[in-house]
UniProtKB/TrEMBL annotation, chain A:
Name of the coding gene: Cenpp
GO CC annotations on file: chromosome, centromeric region; nucleus
Gene Ontology biological process terms, A to Z: CENP-A containing chromatin assembly
InterPro entries for this protein: CENP-P
Name of the molecule in the record: CENPP protein
From TrEMBL, chain B:
Entry's family note: Belongs to the CENP-O/MCM21 family.
Protein name: Centromere protein O
One Pfam family named in its UniProt record: CENP-O
Keywords annotated in UniProt: Centromere, Chromosome, Coiled coil, Nucleus
Classification via InterPro entries: CENP-O (IPR018464)
Entry keyword annotation includes Iron: no
Gene that this sequence comes from: Cenpo
Organism from which the protein derives: Aramus guarauna (Limpkin)
Lineage: Eukaryota, Metazoa, Chordata, Craniata, Vertebrata
Length: 189, 296
């Protein structure tokens, strides 16, 4: 009797985990296949505030969502200005999601000062006992100013080793120098 | 005194009415006790069965829920639910759903900044920066600095290890160029993380080649250890001392590979070759190349 109760408990636990993962997968798919423009966002904020004033049963007041969005956008805009890295588009797709492993495909485009880039990579995250480890694979980089031979050597070496972090840090300092040089030339024209 | 024998064996020992009635009561009590035990056991079994039945019903519920979700996800992946966010009204998503979508998107982009090496969050009194470290494609530890900006920029709290010269770097750059400050600090942290990663990888994947313990300091810029090599089906011991003089670099500036004084000349040649290799290549990659090179 105890044995069968034990087995049933195990099955319940495994079903609950499976349901949790499926629900997350559903949310991810939903999120990743949707897009709303900035105008739609602004309109939604206004309409949300109107709905609330009309007295609908919102357990979360619009000011909470609105201020959360504003705070996040302030952080993002600060980071972009501070680092010089502007992301113009970010596409993400969850390829695999199990209890301990998540694989996502990312497509990013943006510019660092005047240098434009387009990236694609896969991000593997593994849940260890105490932490989460993240590894980049299948990194592919396209630089607008790709004709520069030093730049293309740098890019292929970066792609080979999945050196995404080094790419951004080097890009940042190179772009600043490049910008400084450009301004200096303009000054002397 | 209660006899524990069954009734029929003391019928013969009866000595008068009182002994008889005492015996009968004792026997009745024993029967009652047995009946109680049996009833309790019966109740327990019924409770267990009820519990099992409830749990099995729960399993059915969950299976149903799981199957419904599976079907929804399959439909999604076939693209039949279409755009719009909210299932109940796929054509017209609610304003709340749109906002929640946008919040989730902005959060995802902020997470990408983590991958660039510098991310952060505005606080009431300044900024909290987070410097991430990585070795090639593997992200390692990240370190945070809580900065206050008024009346001047200063570090309120941080998680940078003590052996990283934070004060020196701050003194030089924090007031004049925060970007430069973070960049230099990031160089130190990434180099440290890279050195530590190489030593860890060595201990994890090449422990059979290492003799004794791998000595290292907390900054991981001094490594001393012995390792064995095989040459003409004989095993020899080499001792290596790696000094990483440039704290912003994860390759050593000084390498000394030594062997026993009575070792053959070919070994001394090997030591020199290894010394050169360690100067140019990451430690674990150097050892990986040994494995594929000499198979004697």
């Amino acid at each position: 009797m105890d044995n069968s109760i034990c087995q049933v408990y195990e099955e319940i636990q495994s079903l609950e985990e499976e349901i949790k993962l499926l629900a997350e997968k559903y949310e991810d798919n939903q999120h990743e296949s949707t897009f709303f423009s900035d105008e739609e966002i602004v309109m939604s904020i206004k309409s949300f505030q109107r709905e609330f004033q009309r007295g609908s049963k919102a357990h979360e007041s619009p000011s909470d969502l609105k201020s959360e969005l504003e705070s996040l956008e302030a952080d993002l805009s600060f980071l972009m200005k501070f680092t010089g890295i502007q992301f113009t588009s970010h596409y993400k797709k969850t390829l695999e999601k199990t209890k301990n492993r998540t694989v996502q495909k990312h497509r990013l485009s943006g510019n660092c000062h005047s240098l434009s880039f387009q990236l694609e990579f896969q991000l593997l995250e593994i849940q260890n006992k105490e932490s989460v480890s993240a590894v980049i694979t299948d990194l592919s980089i396209i630089m607008e100013s790709g004709e520069d031979s030093d730049m293309s050597k740098f890019v292929s070496s970066t792609e080979e080793h999945g050196n995404l972090l080094t790419f951004f840090r080097s890009l940042s300092s190179y772009a600043e120098w490049y910008e400084h040089r450009r301004c200096t030339f303009l000054h002397f024209k | 005194r209660l006899p524990s024998r069954p009734p029929h064996s003391w019928r013969g020992k009866m000595e008068g009415g009182k002994a008889y009635s005492d015996g009968v009561f004792a026997h009745l009590e024993m029967l009652e006790a047995r009946a109680r035990e049996a009833a309790v056991k019966q109740e327990e079994m019924e409770q267990q069965e009820e519990k099992l039945a409830r749990l099995k019903a729960r399993v059915q519920e969950l299976r149903l829920q799981r199957d419904e979700l599976r079907a929804k996800v399959e439909l999604q992946e076939k693209g039949q639910l279409g755009k719009g966010g909210v299932v109940s009204d796929p054509a017209q998503p609610s304003a709340r759903a749109v906002l929640e979508w946008k919040i989730k998107s902005v959060k995802a982009t902020l997470q990408v900044f983590y991958l660039t090496g510098i991310s952060g969050k505005l606080t009431k009194r300044g900024v909290c920066f987070c410097i991430s470290t990585a070795y090639e494609g593997t992200y390692l530890d990240s370190y945070c600095l809580d900065l206050l900006i008024k009346p001047e920029v200063r570090i309120h709290r941080h998680s940078v290890p003590v052996f990283i010269p934070l004060e020196q770097i701050a003194k030089k750059y924090l007031q004049t160029d925060i970007r430069r400050f973070l960049s230099v600090l990031s160089d130190h942290l990434n180099a440290y993380a890279g050195r530590r990663y190489q030593a860890d990888q060595l201990q994890e994947h090449f422990s059979d080649q290492i003799e004794g313990t791998l000595q290292r300091n907390s900054l991981c810029n001094l490594l001393i250890f012995n390792y064995n090599v095989s040459s003409k089906s004989q095993t020899f011991l080499l001792r290596v001392r790696l000094l990483y003089g440039d704290l912003c670099c994860s390759l050593p500036t000084e390498v000394v590979v030594s062997c026993a004084p009575d070792a053959p000349a070919s070994l001394a040649e090997m030591a020199a070759a290894h010394s050169d290799l360690f100067r140019r290549t990451a430690l674990h990659k150097a050892f990986r190349s040994f494995g594929s090179a000499d198979k004697s």
